[in-house]
TrEMBL record, chain A:
<keyword id="KW-0238">DNA-binding</keyword>
<dbReference type="GO" id="GO:0006355">
    <property type="term" value="P:regulation of DNA-templated transcription"/>
</dbReference>
<dbReference type="Pfam" id="PF04397">
    <property type="entry name" value="LytTR"/>
</dbReference>
<feature type="modified residue" description="4-aspartylphosphate">
    <location>
        <position position="54"/>
    </location>
</feature>
<dbReference type="GO" id="GO:0000976">
    <property type="term" value="F:transcription cis-regulatory region binding"/>
</dbReference>
<protein>
    <submittedName>
        <fullName>Two component transcriptional regulator, LytTR family</fullName>
    </submittedName>
</protein>
<dbReference type="GO" id="GO:0005829">
    <property type="term" value="C:cytosol"/>
</dbReference>
<dbReference type="GO" id="GO:0000156">
    <property type="term" value="F:phosphorelay response regulator activity"/>
</dbReference>
<feature type="domain" description="Response regulatory">
    <location>
        <begin position="3"/>
        <end position="116"/>
    </location>
</feature>
TrEMBL record, chain B:
<dbReference type="InterPro" id="IPR029016">
    <property type="entry name" value="GAF-like_dom_sf"/>
</dbReference>
<dbReference type="GO" id="GO:0071555">
    <property type="term" value="P:cell wall organization"/>
</dbReference>
<dbReference type="InterPro" id="IPR011620">
    <property type="entry name" value="Sig_transdc_His_kinase_LytS_TM"/>
</dbReference>
<keyword id="KW-0547">Nucleotide-binding</keyword>
<keyword id="KW-0418">Kinase</keyword>
<keyword id="KW-1133">Transmembrane helix</keyword>
<dbReference type="InterPro" id="IPR036890">
    <property type="entry name" value="HATPase_C_sf"/>
</dbReference>
<dbReference type="InterPro" id="IPR050640">
    <property type="entry name" value="Bact_2-comp_sensor_kinase"/>
</dbReference>
<feature type="transmembrane region" description="Helical">
    <location>
        <begin position="102"/>
        <end position="125"/>
    </location>
</feature>
């Protein structure tokens, strides 16, 4: 059985795809999401093998969402769109799977055939945005999209990944690894990323150092990352 | 007595010369309010010359010279100012000094001081806004009189022996005082008359030009053709009183008003060489009928005897000509020549303006077409997808959606650029919203609160629709939780306020300009009703985006 997630902001579209997929015996729809933010959480948690992903969705587009996925949990993606010339051109160019809505059954069967023969995720580096502009976060249960430039630092603990801005404190499904790769946040500790723009001072200590942000929070810097952090500011 | 007569005679010769000069354009310099440097030089030369001639042709009296030199110095100072006056006086004085005699030094000093005195007086009057006094003959008489009294005093003080000086002054004072003062006064009166005439002439000229300009406004906005041409020709003919006026385009006569209209028929090809040359060479052509023979190219019995042809431009291109004619026995007035050229410039500007206006309205229409053609393909294909899916589940509902879609597309394709009623615009919006609601059943709530009496209000087509589409596309559909769109209308202080508000609050103020849709809506509202009306946007992040439109409510008031 191939576990699969449907992501689309239109309920009828999700329902339709679910109906169509129910005719395939080896596909099991394990979840449905109406936006990319919920989908990120679902993918990180349930790790589906296959994701049907609509491109145009609120706040975070399908493309942006892929850029937020940890390569380790990256599922096989089948894009779906009703109309998007540029995306379709890119899919054709890179031989990615995509479905045009309304979905033709023959086309779906063909795509599923391709997926069945090789379920490995494709490399999508070339079509996804390299630099994330905003991060999908939760404040309690409420969704909140935080622009990257507002972030002071990010850290992980047992309960997950936390994002701190000057005003608020939220959590996110994005991993530190993805954040380090796709944003200007710099690693300063195994559990911490800091925005270089938010640093007001770096205090050297015996075992490493401590960064003080503009809003006055102290963040630990481990010896391992001190050098690269100092280099960032022009100290060798 | 003989001396008085002699000096008077001299003065009269000068005045005759001045009168003659006053008929030339050169004289205009003396009537200027604030002479510029080159003019001051000219004033210096003229009045120094006056002084020199006056001394040279003066009457020898007991080793001194009775003369009208003071006239030159005083007038020069009055017209040229302190520096010019001083220099004129100095020149006249030095020249006098060269003649010798026992009063040479006294005369040199006094002439210089007369020039300076007059110059200072002129300066004082100018800076104290009493310039008009300068041109008053009585004032000039008085001033020259005072200047001459001063001269006599200087002679008495400086010239030695005193007895001889006193005797001289007794003899020459009365004639010199009288003649110089009179001469200066007469001179100024000629200047004044000339000045008044110039002013009158130029104001008559300006008012004539302004009248033509005023009457021509808008006539040529739609371009140069037989109708607009004959209107303009009539106006020009009325205002200039020339024999006839014609307007042509590049190839044929468009209009002809006045003498000879019996054989100068609009619509005929241009036959006159003069006109063809004016068009080809882009030059004003003039045949005065005397030096440059003019003959009507159509009829040998034509009464017209002189002709001025001025090309009309649109940008750099000659698009036609305007022709002014005068009868054989009438002089072609110079003023009409200048005026004719001015009119041609004015008409060219109006044609250009008309074209610009036309282009702009074309542009707006093109933009509108673009906007309407922008049936968002996303919207269209997603709607088709939704309908395809619903067809399987609820055929009746699918049919309903198809009807809404066709209604929406039909209105969109109609592409009217005129006015529609608010009711019709809301129908368009309803169709759109019905479809969007079907696509996002749990996400989109719509509230319409427009009083029925506003439904007959006329607004430009596609005023609300793009705003609502924006509210959905960039607002609600971008909000993860969904939201509400509210369309409202109200009558406030004789103005209608229409609002489109969403509760997503995701509006991002554009960096340089609004999107095409919003800009165009605002532009069309302003074009329809003026600058004080139009569109403005308020928003609060994550709370609301509110687009308000203000329009006048005249149609509604008329209905009540």
């Amino acid at each position: 059985m191939i576990s699969c997630l449907i992501v689309d902001d239109e309920p009828y579209a999700r329902e339709e795809l679910k109906d169509l997929l129910s005719k395939a015996d080896d596909i099991e729809v394990t979840g449905e999401c109406s936006n990319a933010i919920d989908a990120l959480g679902f993918i990180n948690k349930h790790k589906p093998q296959l994701v049907f992903l609509d491109i145009q969705m609120p706040r975070i587009s399908g493309m942006e969402m892929i850029g937020m996925l940890d390569p380790e949990t990256m599922p096989r993606i089948v894009f779906s769109t009703a109309y998007d010339e540029y995306a379709i051109k890119a899919f054709e160019h890179h031989a990615f799977d995509y479905l045009l809505k309304p979905i033709e059954e023959e086309r779906l069967a063909k795509t599923l055939g391709r997926v069945r023969s090789d379920l490995r995720p494709q490399l999508m580096e070339e079509i996804i945005p390299q630099e994330l502009q905003h991060l999908p976060c939760y404040l309690g249960n409420k969704l909140k999209v935080v622009p990257v430039h507002a972030v002071e630092y990010v850290f992980s603990d047992l309960s997950g990944i936390h994002v701190a801005t000057a005003e608020c404190y939220v959590h996110t499904h994005l991993t530190l690894k993805v954040l380090e790769q796709r944003t200007s946040l710099a690693r300063c500790h195994r559990q911490y990323l800091v925005s270089p723009d938010a640093i007001s001072e770096i205090a050297l200590q015996e075992t490493g150092a401590e960064v003080v942000t503009h809003s006055g929070t102290k963040i630990p810097v481990s010896r391992r990352y001190l050098k690269s952090l100092k280099q960032h500011f022009g100290y060798s | 007595m003989a001396l008085i007569l002699h000096l008077l005679q001299q003065m009269c010769v000068y005045l005759v010369i001045v009168y003659m000069v006053s008929k030339t354009p050169l004289f205009k310099i003396f009537t200027e309010d604030a002479p510029r440097l080159p003019h001051k030089v000219l004033i210096y030369l003229v009045f120094s010359g006056f002084c020199v001639i006056a001394t040279t042709f003066g009457e020898q009296v007991d080793g001194a010279i009775a003369n009208t030199r003071a006239m030159g110095a005083v007038l020069g100072g009055l017209l040229g100012g302190p520096v010019t006056g001083f220099l004129i006086g100095l020149t006249g004085g030095l020249h006098r000094y060269g003649f010798g005699g026992f009063t040479d030094l006294a005369c040199a000093i006094s002439t210089t001081s007369e020039g300076l005195l007059a110059g200072m007086t002129a300066f004082y009057l100018r800076t104290h806004n009493k310039r008009a006094l300068l041109f008053r003959p009585m004032f000039v008489f008085g001033l020259t009189f005072v200047a001459e009294v001063v001269q006599m005093l200087i002679i008495l003080i400086v010239a030695r022996p005193f007895d001889q000086a006193l005797a001289l002054v007794e003899q020459i004072a009365p004639p010199m005082l009288l003649v110089n003062s009179l001469g200066a006064a007469f001179f100024m009166s000629i200047v004044r008359d000339q000045k008044t005439m110039f002013d009158k002439l130029s104001s008559a000229f300006s008012s004539q030009a302004l009248k033509i300009a005023e009457r021509c406004v808008g006539v040529l906005a739609k371009g140069l053709n037989e109708v607009s041409g004959s209107k303009v020709a009539q106006i020009v003919k009325d205002e200039t009183n020339v024999g006839a006026v014609a307007i042509t385009d590049r190839t044929k006569l468009l209009a002809f008003i006045g003498i000879g209209s019996d054989h100068h028929k609009p619509g005929t090809e241009i036959s006159s060489r003069l006109t063809l040359d004016a068009i080809e060479q882009n030059k004003v052509m003039y045949a005065d009928g005397v030096e440059e023979p003019y003959g009507c190219s159509l009829s040998p019995t034509c009464k017209l005897g002189s002709c001025l042809v001025i090309p009309l431009h649109s940008d750099t291109e000659v698009i036609g000509t305007i022709k002014l004619y005068e009868q054989k026995n009438k002089l072609f007035l110079n003023i009409n020549r200048t005026l004719g050229e001015g009119i041609a410039k004015l008409l060219s500007n109006q044609i250009l303006y008309g074209e610009l206006e036309e282009k702009q309205s074309l542009l707006t229409r093109a933009e509108l077409k673009l906007l309407q053609a922008q049936v968002n393909p996303h919207f269209l294909f997603n709607t088709l997808n939704t309908i395809a899916i619903i067809t399987k589940r609820d055929a009746e509902k699918a049919r309903e959606l198809l009807l809404q879609l066709s209604k929406f597309l039909r209105i969109n394709l109609k592409r009217t650029s005129g006015l529609v009623t608010l009711g019709e615009e809301l129908d368009h919006v309803d169709a759109y919203l019905a479809i969007e609601k079907a696509r996002f059943p749990d996400k989109l709530a719509v509230e319409v609160d427009v009083p029925t009496e506003l439904l007959s209000l006329k607004i430009p087509a596609f005023t609300l629709q793009p705003l609502i589409e924006n509210a959905i596309k960039h607002g609600i559909s971008q909000s993860v939780e969904g939201g509400r769109v509210r369309i409202s209308g109200a009558l406030l202080d004789g103005q209608v306020e229409l609002q489109v508000e969403d509760d997503a609050g995701l509006y991002i103020p554009p960096k340089n300009r609004e999107g095409l849709g919003v800009t165009l809506v605002d532009k069309r509202l302003k074009k329809q009703w003026g600058k004080e009306f139009g569109l403005h946007i308020e928003w609060e992040e994550e709370a609301f985006t509110r687009v308000s439109i203000h329009l006048p409510a005249p149609v509604l008031e008329a209905a009540q």
